[in-house]
Each structure stands twice: as C-alpha cells, then as structure tokens.
Amino acid sequence: MHTPLCGHAVGEPRAYVEVAIAKGMTEMGFADHLPLSMYDQPGYAMRRHEVDGYVDAIQSLAREYAADIRILLGGEVDFFEETVEADAALLAAYPFDYAIGSVHFVGPGFPYDHPDSKDEYAQFGIDEVYIASFELAAKAAETGLFRVIGHLDLAKKHGHRPVDEQRVAAAAAHALRAIATAGSALELNTAGWRKPVGEVYPSPGLLAEAAELGISLTFGSDAHDPLDVGADFDRASVLARACGYQRVLRLSTGAAEEL
Ligand code: ZN
Ligand code: FE
C-alpha cells in the first residue's frame, strides 16, 4: 500500500495500519512509489530526499505495532530499462523487505495508467501499449531486483481491450514465462476492480496461466486510501482458487501458505 509521500494517496500511514488490524490481517506491506529514475515529476512518486523519512516512518510503525501486526518495508519501483543500476543502488541502500517492479510508462515517457492518458492510447496503439508493457515486465523480472511484479496487465485499466487478441496474448505469455524463469512472484492486485475496467490485475486467464507455470502469488490492494486496505481479499481468494492457486506467498518468510 501507499502513503501520501507519492503525491496521489491520502491518509496517514498509521491509518492504513489501523484498518489492516481491524480487518484481522496479520501482515501488511507498505510499497509506496520510490523515486522515479526517469520522468521525475511531482505527483507520481516520492522524491529522492524523501526516502529516508519514508523508511524511518514505516520502521517506527513496524516497531510500534509489532504486537498486533507484522509491517513490512517495501517499495514499488517504476521499471525503466535505462535505469536498472540506479534502481539497484537505491534498493540496496535501505533495508527493504521486498520490492515490487511495476511498469507505468511505455515508449518514450507515455504514462499509460495516468487518468489523463486514456485518450492518448489511440495514438500509441492499444496493442502496442499492452505489448510494450509486457515486454518491460519481462525485463523487470529478468533483473532479479523484484520479489514481485506488480499489476501485470495494467494496460487495461481504462477499459481499452486488445485489438489483435492473439498477438497481445502471446506477449503476455512470454512475460509470464520470463517471470517464472526469474522466480519473481505475481501480484494479484484488487485495484482493477475499482477502476473502469472492473477486472483484477492480472486477468483470470493470465492468473490461470501463471498458476500453470508455478508462479508464486501475492495479494495487493494497492491502497492509496486507508479505506481500500485489504479491499476484496475474500473475493480475490475465491478467484485465485478458481484459477488454480492453492497457495499464496507470505513475503515475510518466503513460505507458501494455504489460501
Ligand atoms: Zn500509485
Ligand atoms: Fe503501480
């Protein structure tokens, strides 16, 4: 989940923790947007000088609430091929429990999931957005920097559906194979149910393929508001089971647990 440091989330981190405890969760992770190594502009992510404060804030909450819930320190990294070394250095500079690798930009700086971008898909090409984002997700996994690959088919967020379904499905399948080979986990991200597309990331079809490939699964509500902490996790469990998953990865231990 996120914090207001990213510039587009609301609620103090403490409020997220209180909701998680009230929902009976035993473990939660903050994975706010870490500084963008490219296209650094306000509103997308915390800035470089804010990372120390983020890490301190999450670590002190983890200590304060240790008796009630295990709080992990994570980060969501915007993946760019050009900045792998800088991102690796940032991740190594702090005691992160895990990092999520996510693709929010394709081509030369097209922030496809941004609300203002939905009308620009036509220019870029809907299939091109999907395919480019899948290719980058595969490359993110191949770096080995990310325990989890975030919201794999985020390209559908605004409701754009592939034109050439087979071509897009082939690109997705290639990304899943790369993720499986790299040993990264996939995030079942329930935020998609709250977006125009009205479908979880990744889609049930991709989840079934991922289960088939033996890719580990984590659950994420991608909360940008305390109200969304753990949103729809019951529904997500049912879906994961229907897609062939029997286990979910616990990030604190690396153990797979019964769903
Ligand atoms: Zn965000
Ligand atoms: Fe994200």
Any overview of this molecule?
There is one protein chain. The chain has 259 residues and is an alpha/beta fold. The protein has helices at 13-22, 51-64, 84-92, 121-124, 126-143, 165-182, 204-212, 233-242; strands spanning 27-33, 70-78, 98-102, 148-149, 185-189, 217-220, 247-250, 255-258. The strands form two sheets. A six-stranded parallel β-sheet has the order 1-2-3-4-5-6. Helix 2 (51-64) links the parallel strand 1 and strand 2. Helix 5 runs parallel beside helix 6 (165-182). The radius of gyration is 17 Å and the shape is globular. The model has no long low-confidence stretch (mean pLDDT 97). Fe (iii) ion (FE) binds at residues 76, 102, 104, 150-151.
Number of helices: 8
Classify the beta-strand content into a percent band.
15-25%
Q: Kindly provide the radius of gyration, computed on alpha-carbon positions and rounded to a whole number of angstroms.
A: 17 Å
Terminal Cα span:
21 Å
- Overall 3D form: globular
Helix content class: 25-40%
What topology, given as strand order, has the largest sheet? 1-2-3-4-5-6
